[in-house]
Automatic annotation (TrEMBL):
Keywords: mRNA processing, mRNA splicing, RNA-binding. This is RRM domain-containing protein. The keyword RNA-binding applies. The keyword RNA-binding applies. It comes from Phaeocystis antarctica. InterPro entries: Nucleotide-bd_a/b_plait_sf, RBD_domain_sf, RRM_dom. One of its GO terms (biological process) is mRNA processing. Residues 1-85 form the RRM domain. It comes from the Eukaryota. Gene3D superfamilies: 3.30.70.330. PROSITE patterns: RRM. One of its GO terms (molecular function) is RNA binding.
Length: 285
């Protein structure tokens, strides 16, 4: 599994991330009860520590880990998803993997079947053990939210509320998407936070096709009145340029209305000319 939005500057190591996920998965009853030992075999961190990969002993436990999406570590909500090059397991391999013990079995992924792709993720229940990771803890979580060492809440994300957004309009689709509600003013005050958000956004968008560029105008950036890139019109937006219009449409369909840190993402299309004008402004990239 790919894990994004890792906390920076807290001394996180691959071994600590492995320890964290082993504790979280077991405490949430997402592991294979028929197997002894730890569900996580290994963890790898990127050079800058912004994201990592978690290797599991079984397919079922890897699938089950997606129920922990948005779990908190070091004050950051982790984004847990399959790697970009993920390919579904061929049905013909099912029995062989089961015999080898690689398929696995959990309460939310019986015999490796992905039940978490439906509308309602499985509930995570059970007490959460304390886990000391040697990091500074964020502000205390609400009493109803279980924590791990003061760093982690493993309650599942709340069900998506009605977004109130207008339907996605693809009648004038282009190769460029403008995404609202992906960033906040607080995010833009932190260069590393914006770097993480843009990296994760690009990764998500690349699931639908090649991405040429991904950027967000810096606070106060903007063109003159009537330019189409006035500061008020482009503030707090992320812009993504694809190679093809089909990729942009597919990505817009996936992201429009999707919850991102409790906010409903809005996707709109803009012209390539406007995007090129945006690139002349001070931007996070």
């Amino acid at each position: 599994m790919h894990v994004g939005n890792l906390p920076l500057g807290v001394g996180l190591t691959a071994d600590m991330l492995k320890q964290f996920f082993n504790a979280a998965i077991v405490s949430a009853n997402l592991h294979d009860l028929a197997k002894e030992g730890e569900p996580v075999l290994d963890c790898l961190l990127s050079g800058e520590g912004k994201f990592g990969f978690v290797e599991f002993r079984t397919i079922a436990e890897a699938i089950s880990c997606t129920a922990l999406n948005n779990i908190e570590l070091g004050g950051k909500q982790l984004r847990i998803e399959r790697p970009r090059d993920y390919q579904p397991m061929p049905e013909a391999m099912h029995e062989e993997l089961k015999k080898l013990g690689i398929l696995g079995n959990t309460s939310v992924a019986p015999d490796g079947k992905d039940l978490l792709s439906g509308d309602a993720p499985a509930a995570i229940t059970g007490p959460t053990p304390m886990l000391a990771l040697g990091m500074s803890a964020p502000a205390p979580a609400p009493p109803s939210t279980p924590t791990v060492g003061g760093l982690v809440s493993i309650a599942p994300a709340a069900p998506a509320a009605p977004t109130g957004l207008p339907p996605l309009d693809t009648s004038a689709a282009t190769v460029v998407l403008a995404l609202q509600n992906m960033v906040t003013a607080e995010d833009q005050s932190k260069e590393d936070e914006m770097s993480d958000i843009l990296e994760d956004t690009k990764s998500e968008c690349e699931k639908h096709g090649a991405v040429v560029a991904c950027l967000a105008p810096k606070p106060g950036a903007g063109g003159p009145e009537g330019s189409g890139i006035e500061a008020g019109a482009i503030a707090l937006r992320v812009y993504v340029r694809f190679v093809t219009k089909e990729s942009a449409i597919a990505c817009a369909g996936e992201l429009h209305g999707k919850q991102f840190d409790g906010r409903a993402v809005r996707a709109d299309f803009i012209s390539e000319a406007v995007f090129e004008a945006l690139q002349t402004l001070p931007c996070f990239v």
